[in-house]
Amino acid sequence: MIKAKSNTIAMEVISKLVLKFLKDKKFEGFYISCIPDDRFGRSHLDRIVNNISREKKLPIYRFQKIKETKKQHLLYFGERRLNVENCFKAEFSPEKILLIDDVITSGATLRSAYKELTRSGSKIVYSLTFAVSPVFWENYKNSVHK
Fold first, then answer.
1. Beta partners for 31?
2. Which of 24, 51, 55, 80 is packed most tightly, with the most Cβ within 10 A?
3. With the CA atoms of 48, 17, 21 and 125 taken in that order, what torsion angle do they form, in degrees rounded to the nearest 10?
């Protein structure tokens, strides 16, 4: 969606939209984080996370991507979970985290990050994405309303 780190206009627009959405929401005791792109914890979403952190006064927590993975958008749904399984490493993660990602397509990346964050100490992990694929949304609606 916004993988181009140089697209500063898109990053600023999305930051403003997210901050507007979060305006009246309280995140006392939370840290903010995003899905890392590399072993240093860097992400194409860093600018957005930094803006939210500054405005909402949330400290930033970084964890690592420790395993090279194939591009998720090139894989079938069944392959996505295996692709990102155990690809993250977190140490002493905070109790409460607001986890940012750009798109949720199958849920595999968020699921893998959640698993690692809770393994390393997090008790509450809220996720916020900017877009949801129609396939994921239909699967979600069908699973909730059964």
1. 97
2. 80
3. -30
